[in-house]
Amino acid sequence: MRAGVHVIRLGDVGLPLSEAAGPEAGEIRGLWCALRRPREFRCEYLLVPAADAERWCDATERVLHALHVAYAAECEADDLLEPPRGGGWRRIAWRARRPWIRARRDAAVERLRGEMLGAYREFRDRAGDLTERLPAERERHAHERETALAGLDGAVWGCTEYEVRGQVLGAPAAYMRPRFHIFVPVLEDSPYDGATRTGLPPGDVRAALDAARARDPEVQYTWGRGSAEALSEWAGRDSPEEAWRRLTGARLPLPPRRPDRLPWPHGSQESAGGGHGPSSTYGNPGVTDGGAGGTF
Prior knowledge:
By secondary structure, this protein is of the alpha+beta class.
């Protein structure tokens, strides 16, 4: 079983840079780490063995937490050297105690040096193999992508039925709104919890969408970003909807318009750009909106 991760160099994640950790930490910051959700646009998406993905992501989360806690403590230690506001006896007392304050600050920094370096070393021990395996994983991912592009008309598709919160205009409470996510499993996993089916030809994906809409006509669909990009590339950079039409001979139908439900800001799907509307994935580069006038 494989799981999707977003890889980036540890030093590019936005970690606080502290001199307290020393040069060894600088070398470890050059290693690659794995994130469950992207925090930077420079992240690279890969499918890797699920056990390794969990280990790498957990190691990254632990080092991020430990370093942010240590950095906050270091800032507090540096604040000890700041003179008090105002003058008078407070400043005189601070000057008299300054040697003791500096010694206390230096002791705190020395302690934090060990904590930060320990956090970096723990990350290297648990996730250092990611950097070594990354070239092979990239090559495998590229090969699987080429294979998927050559067989998009075959049983390479997957879909997930899931729900998101919606809102009826004028109603006091939200309701759960159904969605239908389309993706290619060899390129990416589904980011949603729900009933997932894989190994489907395009016709079965359309049949599954029709069946979902038979239960609820308002089901809207979303594309996996990597899958949408591959489909568009296969069709010569067309939109995913147009590429799907060329692949199957028919476009995926849009759900019926409900003007009493958000977020069709211009009053209709047509005015929202033919159903492409505001992206449902602002801040989530793993998904693109398709067949919806926006999502929640």
